[in-house]
Amino acid sequence: MSKDTKASNDPLEARLIRDLAGILEETGLTEIEIEKAGLRVRVARNVSVSAVAAVAPAPVAAAPVAAAVAPAAPKAAETAGHPGLVTSPMVGTAYLAPSPGAAPFVKVGDTVKEGQTLLIIEAMKTMNQIPAPRAGRVTKVIVNDGQPVEYGEPMMIIE
Predict the structure, then answer these.
(1) How far from 58 is each of 38, 102, 129, CA to CA, in Å?
(2) Which region, left, alpha or beta, applies to residue 64 given φ > 0 means left and ψ of -120 to 50 means alpha?
(3) Which of 20, 101, 126, 149 could in theory staple to 43 by disulfide, Cβ–Cβ 3.0 to 4.6 A?
(4) Burial level of 53, CB count in 10 A (0-12/13-18/19+)?
């Protein structure tokens, strides 16, 4: 087995891997590879790429954000376990429209197809389209435009 495919317990190699991962985070790169003295290390991460144009979101005032986040706990309790619940797959900022002032992707009462874009979540300056996990009718939009969301946080209900 060559050195680049063999697991190693060398603390210097572990540190190198951690440093390279840090560089990926800092620069937004998806992959980095180096080779030095017969040791080859490649570090990569999965990144979701969307076709939505990166548009600077409208600034969100601190007071409305605090107000929007505070009622999230009761909403989560009301919707927990609903079979049509759409939850956030990541931490970021939810936007209901493709750009400020544009019509929302969907609204309550709309019929959606599986895979249709429901909203976008900005995470690490990348706009990620969130598709409908199933076909149905949007009965509730739980998040507000520009609201910070956590992983697993309820965002919509499709029945």
Answers:
(1) 49, 12, 18
(2) alpha
(3) 20
(4) exposed
> How many helices and strands, by DSSP H and E, does the chain display?
3, 10
CATH 2.40.50.100 applies to domain 62-158: yes
Cα angle value 132/138/144 (rounded, 5°):
85
For residues 70 and 26, the model is more confident at 26
pLDDT at residue number 146: 92
Residues of the chain with CATH 2.40.50.100: 62-158
Distances (CA, A) of 155 to 10, 37, 72: 44, 50, 10
The whole-model pTM stands at 0.52
Rounded to the nearest 10°, the torsion over CA 128, 134, 139, 140 is -30
Cα(158)–Cα(111) distance, integer angstroms: 9
CA dist 139 and 110 (Å) reads 8
When pLDDT is averaged across residues 13-39 and rounded to a whole number, the result is 76
Strand partners, 94: 121, 147
Cα 2 from Cα 74, distance rounded (Å)? 55
Structure tokens at 42: 């490649």
